[in-house]
Amino acid sequence: MSLATQSITALRQQLTAGEITSRDIVESVAAAIESTNNSIGAYLSHDLDRALAAADAADLSLPLGGIPIAMKDNINVQGEPCTCGSKFLQNAYLSPYDATASRKLKESGAILFGRTNMDEFAMGSSTENSALQITRNPHDLDRIPGGSSGGSAAAVAGGSAVAALGSDTGGSVRQPASHCGVVGLKPSYGRVSRYGLVAFASSLDQIGPLTNSVEDAALLLEAIAGPDPRDSTCLDQPVPNYRDSLKKGVKGTRIGLPAEYFGAGLDPAVRERIESAAKALEAQGAELVELSLPFTQHAVATYYIIAPAEASSNLSRFDGIRYGNRVDNGTGIVDLYGTSRAAGFGAEVKRRIILGTYVLSSGYYDAYYTRAQKVRTLIQQEFQSAFQKVDAILAPVSPSPARKIGEAKGDPLKDYLADIYTISANLAGVCAISVPAGTVPADNGKQLPVGLQLIGPHLAEETILRIAQTWEDIR
Amino acid sequence: MSASTDFKVGYVASLARLDITPEEAERFQGQLDGILSYIEALQSIDVDGIEPTAHPAPVLDRLREDHDPAFSIEQAAFLQNAPDQALHQLRVPKVIDPS
Questions:
Q1: Using 50, 70 and 90 to split pLDDT, how confident is the model at B3?
Q2: The domain at B3-44 falls in which architecture?
Q3: Do A78 and A12 share a domain, yes or no?
Q4: Chain B: closest CA distance from residue A324 (Å)
Q5: What is the ipTM of this complex?
């Protein structure tokens, strides 16, 4: 079995036993990138020499010593590109610093190897919005890997990364994990520092791991979570040993099934997978509780006011002045901004900046942005009430498995509506994980992965990881 | 407030310093009108007495010493990304017209 397809845990055992070297793992990953990147296109760039040098210097006594991790191309790693999937930053920016998550991975002994493809500036659910290349789902190359962390998910699923980091603003770690059949975790808001993550929506973004196993996700979360004085939204909370409670089972764990997540829009084959998983967990001693979360129906509208609003502000820094591709026709500074941004940004990014600017503009701010923030309060309160009755919520990740590349052309709203099951967790700031839950057949007979989502209270990653581990053990 | 009649893509794009082509303006107008119609549903929710949430896990008054040596970036590292530079500084078009 290729080293690149093994779990971090398995590799660490072999490394510390002296059976393999870190160089062996990096070379295995590099070989997999060589053989798959033309078809899957998960990686935008990878620096093999740098990774091999780090591998040879790896400190195997550290928790992630010698393990290569792929990085979504919006997380700064010093000396590496950080294109965010955009022409604006293509060949025009090398990170002058490490994101806190990058630094913490390095401090845990990991080797940061490879920059993965993504929807431009994290705006999208398919990775089709990358301005730089297409990424294909390893399970069916005609289909999307999901997004916006599609490159990271496809790399792990396609055997060209041991594990990866992504970012999740409205589902962008969980949904590609679901579409590609890997584990994807969105930590609670404030659990992981956003310093060095190129901001899309500052009150929604979180960095999260994409891995082959629940234990690997727990291990990566331990490495990257924790307080950070450089991110004032990062919580001053200690990081538990997430692996300690993984195997404690689900006896007596109350798991909520919200009616609104199992309604008419859910593909029957997906529903069957999720309901069967719920029953399997019940057989392990979990108590299934029926719930209603009526504000679910307003989550997409709320998100598509708040996220573009925050994005319009965050992306104003891309003005062609300090970094990025500048387009200067000699007609003055304001034109420079306008032409640089016009040339550098793709359609989805432009649409969201325009939408965000509108809902924040004078005369419209209260009717749109403030109102959406109030609905956000109601959504958050609804989760808090639900978590009085249940320990975690079980739900699908996506109404249907991965669609074909190009299917949503010209109709952005179609993709927005498919974010229905993931978006609320970002609005409420709670934690959520997608774990593989089997496959459903496509028309052409290919088997398409389906993810099971577990949503937990703020800072209750131990609970959702434990339930996820139980499921992984019995499925 | 009816979004569709008030929302003019060209004007808002100029606020955002985004030069868009007439073709883009027409395409985006239609797409964004559709999205704004969908978003109108929020107008019917009773939000009386509800406080807006800006952050899901607010942390207030986070202060630190104004000194973190590892926080700063070397001038050379910064300038390596500069689209145009001279004399160890960023070079930009004239902002203020002296005339």
A1: very low
A2: Orthogonal Bundle (1.10)
A3: yes
A4: 7
A5: 0.94
